[in-house]
Amino acid sequence: MKVKFKYGIQTYSGTVDEMVYGSYRDGKLCIGREYVYPRLTANNETLGAIGSNLAALWATVSSDYKDDLKTYSQRNGTENVPKTQLPPTSYALFIKMMHAWAKSDPEHIDLASINREDVTELGTYVTTVKNAIGNGYLDSISAYDDLTGAF
CB within 8 A of 68, min separation 6: which ones? Predict the structure, then answer.
C-alpha cells in the first residue's frame, strides 16, 4: 500500500511496528507491507552452521595472518574496488577465500566442521595470503609477495 507520513517525511526504509517500508523513485514514493517472518529452511541451518564455524576459526587465526589480510584489504581497495564502494574488510575477505577454497575441493572441505588443524593440513593453498592470491582464491593485486604471515 502507498504510505503518507506526517511532518514533512516523504519516505522511509525499514521495519517499524510490524510493517516494512520501502523507498522508491528516488525518495518520492513509499510503499508499506505487513512484516512476515521468513520461513526457516535446511539451507538457513546450513549457512548458520558454516557462519558460526568460520567465526570460531577466525578467532584462532594468527595476528600476522590477520594483519596481512588487512594489508591486502587496503591494497585491494585501491586497485580493484570502485571509488564509490567501500572495500571489503579483512574478515569478509577471509570468508570469501574460505568459500572459494571449499568450492574448489568440496570432497575434502566442509566449512561447517573445518578447524585450524584441517586448514594447516589440507590448506597449503590458503595458509598464507600470498598463496591464496596465487591460487586465485582472492583477487590479484600488484604487490603481494610480502603477505606471508602463517595461518
Answer: 128, 129, 147, 148, 149
Check residue 28 and give its pLDDT: 79
What's the pLDDT band for 3 if we cut at 50, 70, 90? confident
Name the H helices within the chain.
42-60, 63-79, 90-104, 116-122, 129-134
Q: Which residues contact 101 (CB under 8 A, 6 or more apart)?
A: 109, 123, 125, 126, 132, 137
Query: CA-to-CA distance for 71 and 81, rounded, in angstroms?
Result: 14
What single letter denotes the amino acid at residue 126?
V
> What is the edge-to-edge ordering of all strands in the sheet holding 14-16?
14-16, 19-24, 29-34
CB 72 within 8 A of CB 147: yes
What's the CA dihedral at 88, 89, 95, 96 to 10 degrees? 20
User: What 3-state class would DSSP assign to 23?
Assistant: strand
Non-local (6+) Cβ contacts of 86 within 8 A are 77
pLDDT value of position 120: 85
DSSP 3-state of 95: helix
